[in-house]
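== Sequence and structure of one protein ==
=== Format: two labelled lines per protein ===
==== Data for this protein ====
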Amino acid sequence: MSSLSTANVSAPLSAAESQADSQADVQAEAEAQARRDASAASHTAAVKRRERAAQWHLLFLAVVVLGPLVIYPLVRLVMLSLTGSHGISVQAYSTFFGNPETRGVIGTTLWILFASAGLASLLGVALASILFFKPFPGARMVTRFLELFVAFPSFLVAFTLIFLYGSQGSVSIGLQRLFHLQEPPLNFLFGVGGVILAEVVFYAPFVVRPTLASFALLDRRLIEAARSLGANGVMVAFKVILPLAWPGIAAGTILCFLLTLNEFGILLVLGSAHLITLPVAIYSSATVDLDLPTAAAGAVVMLLMSLSLYALYRQVNRRQLKGAGNGR
């Protein structure tokens, strides 16, 4: 009888305890959900604060840095090229393109550009291929020197070539004494030959670095498979390596063309009076002729050419990075 009474009493107690545990679980879940909601809200607020701070930083950069140093000069350059005696005019562009010498100047600029940048690109790709696929003792040191070489000012290369291969340079004087010549045998620097040589020497390292980076992303198993199937070195280079590495090679080549187009120091040191390129013509119009609107018109034309090359470089470089991401 007593055991039955105890069972009857314990049954309601167990039900009450179960209901209390259930209520506690519900309350704990509600508290956990509240904490998660608070954490999510805090995270969202932090993200908004970071975005707001980034917007303010961008605005500060645009107003304080880009505004006075980049945007304002470019706007002033364009406005100056469109300024005439009676307000807005395209007279400066008419003067620039109507000058009979302008066609020759543009032709000379493009000739030096394609000769220098083309040879520099070929030399850069060849150097990168040797350093990557045919390493030799000291190859790492050569690579580091080429990386350091891009930090040198371009006119320093021009002066170095003058000290070595000029008519009074050490190499020229040495050859004159060695072969008992009446005059120094080397006398080509102050003209097209010297400008092209200096630009090839200076801008070839700018092609080496992107090409090496592109070679590093290659799957060496594909190269070994092609060799095992009987492909020689030329076939491997043109059928396997070049199709896979062309984005990096193209990016380095376009960068070389872009930098060569805007080169001025080498032209100023080694260019003769008869070698007038677009940068030299713009400089002459501004400083000698004091024709600022015509100089501004030429600068705008050159700026558009540079921006076109830069847009192409960005597109090719983006494709290279996308291919690298897909490869990983």
Summary: The radius of gyration is 34 Å. DSSP finds 13 helices and two strands in the chain. The chain has a mean pLDDT of 82. Residues 2-81 form the longest helix (80 residues).
